[in-house]
Amino acid sequence: MATNRGIAYVGPGKVEVRSIDFPKLIDPAGRRCDHGVILKIVTTNICGSDQHMVRGRTTAAAGLILGHEITGEVIEAGRDVEFIKVGDLVSVPFNVACGRCRNCKERATGVCLNVNPARAGGAYGYVDMGGWIGGQAEYVMIPYADFNLLKFPDKAQAMEKIQDLTCLSDILPTGFHGCVSAGVSTGATVLISGAGPVGLAAAASAFLLGAAVVVVADFNKERLAQARSFGCETIDLAQGGTIAERIEQILRVPEVDCAVDCVGFEAKGHQGEDEPAIVLNQLMEATRAAGAIGIPGLYVTEDPGAGDRAAKHGNLSIRLGLGWAKSHTLCTGQTPVMKYNRGLMMAILHDRIRIAKAVNTTVISLDQAPKSYAEFDKGVARKFVIDPHGSIKHAA
Ligand code: ZN
Ligand code: ZN
Q1: C-alpha 220 – ligand 1 centre gap (Å)
Q2: What is the whole-number distance in angstroms between the Cα of residue 169 and the centre of ligand 2?
């Protein structure tokens, strides 16, 4: 009998490596997944959105196997998988999508209607996202494989760039989508709130889209230095001043063309207190009239750990009147990864973007993951990439 190990959420601030069942071609409702495959995982990343669960800021139950950023090799294919083959090396979009519903047909795979009985949208290893078992593990089952999987054209070429390609499952398309929905194009000035991995991926994406100036704002000095390492301007929020004043120092005008929120609902004020609406309000202040704001940062319907009653149910004090007066366009929601991952794969394979360097990928073993979760929570400027089978070491 084949074995498997994965990272389990145990309780606030605690994850551990556990022996778990080897995956079967069966969905969370117990139905057969003849359209699915079993992957031997090559890389699987720790994500800021995992941290929301691990900090106890969601209703995630103890025992949940984490992990939605998955790259792997197909070792078994179900009866109805026609085009993906055993041996293929593939990137898995974090969105679980059926490929059959109205939203999937319209490329809104982040809100597939058939993979989560509770609401639109599914993901691996995530609370309220359909119960799909996570991929911070040695093996995982991926449903609707022909639709979901992106096959790399050449395995040897892909293994050489695997630390870049591992970012295709979430952070790179997510950062890119934030920029696209904020209207970033040639010559744009862009403000990115949050210098975590998604913020840095958004910054690298902004350059790929032709931005003239990319300004990254955060309190975390190490992460801001990381942003400067590939050409971003930075605003250290700990130094005070309004966002408009700080932008004026850099651009000579107090507004940007485009803004991207890569922070989400755990946004903090100056004293480190919860201020879930502060980033959205700053971005409306900082974005030009008729500009757009991309919001890949995660907001939730229920936040039991929130300080005030309204925020516990996802109600925030957004200054929408300001955004309305400036005719802002706001774009929310999970990124439909599939819309972007193929083009971004080509940009990686042909050296148009160096995403691993931008987000400072750091390869670890499965057993090192609990320690890395703790370091990531402290704000290190790293993107942890778990290599559960030592595949990267082997390839190197
Ligand atoms: Zn993620
Ligand atoms: Zn669907």
Answers
A1: 20
A2: 18
Beta strands in the chain (DSSP E): 4-11, 14-20, 37-45, 70-77, 89-92, 95-96, 122-123, 139-142, 150-151, 189-193, 213-218, 233-236, 256-261, 287-294, 329-331, 361-364, 383-386
Q: What is the pLDDT of residues 284-307, one digit of tens each?
A: 999 999 999 999 999 988 888 788
Instruction: Please give the distance, rounded to the nearest whole angstrom, from the Cα atom of residue 47 to the centre of ligand 1.
Output: 4
Which residue among 331, 352, 369 closes a domain?
331
Claim to verify: residue 218 and residue 325 sit in the same structural domain: yes
- What is the pTM (predicted TM-score) of this model? 0.97
Q: Which ligand is nearest to the CA of 334?
A: 1
Question: Same structural domain for residues 30 and 154?
Answer: yes
Q: How many domains does the chain have?
A: 2
> What's the CA-to-centroid distance between 124 and ligand 1, angstroms?
10
pLDDT, tens digit (0-9, with 9 covering 90-100), for 335-372: 999 999 999 999 999 999 999 999 999 999 999 999 99
Owning domain of residue 115: 5-170+336-395
For residue 179, give every residue at least 6 positions away whose Cβ sits within 8 Å of its Cβ, in sequence order, or none: 190, 202, 205, 206, 209, 211, 258, 260, 294
Residues 326 and 386 in one domain: no
Report CA(266)–ligand 2 centroid distance (Å).
29
Task: Calculate how far, in angstroms, residue 68's C-alpha sits from the geometric centre of ligand 1.
Answer: 6
pLDDT of 249 higher than 70: yes
Q: 54 C-alpha vs ligand 2 centroid, how far in Å?
A: 28
